[in-house]
Amino acid sequence: xxxxxxxxxxxxETDARPARLxxxxxxLELDWDDGHKSVFPSRFLRLNCACAGCVQELTGRPLLDPAxxxxxxxxxxxxxxxxxxxxxxxxxxxxxxxxxxxxLRAICPCGEHPKIESETA
Length: 121
Hints:
The structure is a single chain. 10% of the residues lie in helices and 26% in strands. It is mostly beta strands. A three-stranded antiparallel β-sheet has the order 1-2-3. Strands 4-5-6 form a three-stranded antiparallel β-sheet. A hairpin with an 8-residue loop joins strand 5 (85-90) and strand 6.
């Protein structure tokens, strides 16, 4: 399933919150307060950006061309946004995407969590 091709409208809620966030050569690593560990490869996370520059807001149609995202893209740094999310700053200059904790948990590459439901209406 290509989660980037789905409208990111129904993100499952989670009570889990990151206890540790760190940018490493592997990407963004999170230790959750419920004991789960997530590793988001940089390119995977960049391709899953759901900001208005990457996904058409009303239709959910992808605007980001995956072929234009460098294979070697990295997260230069990140900012925590309130108590709900993370804003990566990318080596390609992109900086407008905010990933809520709920969205990060839903797109976790481990495959153990409820995924984002696409909107059918």
